[in-house]
């Protein structure tokens, strides 16, 4: 009988600092897992398993809704439905990107950053899809054909571009800019490689031997655990190289990641990067909910818009507060930590938003077709294309910066 060997899991003090999550102590995967090991971890209880499935299953659901809507609609002749299909398509993209990011983010430090860069880009693409749908179906009657309506989608495109750049910047900070002029010598590269071969010894500094290791290379406890492990793929003590010295001057010349140096500022920038496009997209909805309480048929979708807004605020709270795991570290490592709750709230918010948009589209069809200028195919395609081009340019820039920063070889990938 065939037996499936699941990947080994590690504690927080056994993995590099870049992989650490606040309040999560156990269930970390190998910091250089193979793609196969990452896929196998879907069927193993790690601290990422529910993060993956809470977006992978909704991706299947939203895809089913999207395909069903396409099947019952004459898409070539019903231009009124085009914004809805763009919105539904982007609502499929971001859960898939998120689940892939959480699946493959343990392949390496660089892979982790790139996975989340793509995740941020997908979220901002969904933000644009929401703006297109709101512009077509949910904008209040008094705003239709106004200057605000004319510039609403173009500014939403600009917001997605800025937001993607800011969210990527929140992970690397000035390290991305420093990387362009960073040219490590052979001795520095060798010193970095030998961080993991010190076999329990602390990093030796030229002037201050007890200072901590540079966080972007490795956490100080990784060498003391991995070389001693008999796990396949990890170096045996006999294969380790002599301990080297990394001077303080060399350390200070290394690019430093904002995510590690100032995690609070990093989180604040990332929340801001997602909050202000959402605020701009939601201005027509806020106007309807708080200033047009007697606006007739529009109110039949108002309840869904209210629930969507409340669920989005709850998701933002979980994303920024790191509760409950911050109050009880180690208790919610596998089930119930804030990122899982954030995922659930985001999916529920998207479902409520989709119901509201579909209801607006149906109830307001006649009035909108008679009084509004519908978005044309070139306008919709141009907005989506600009968002993709500039967001991907941001992602490529920050990803290239990662590879201009030297990354030490930790050990062979786990298979």
From TrEMBL:
The gene is PAQR5. Pfam families: HlyIII. PANTHER family: ADIPOR/PROGESTIN RECEPTOR-RELATED, MEMBRANE PROGESTIN RECEPTOR GAMMA. It is a multi-pass membrane protein. The keyword Lyase does not apply. This is Progestin and adipoQ receptor family member 5. The chain crosses the membrane at residues 52-72, 84-104, 116-139, 151-169, 379-403. Its main location: membrane. It is found in: Membrane. The lineage of its organism: Eukaryota, Metazoa, Chordata, Craniata, Vertebrata. Belongs to the ADIPOR family. Keywords: Membrane, Transmembrane, Transmembrane helix.
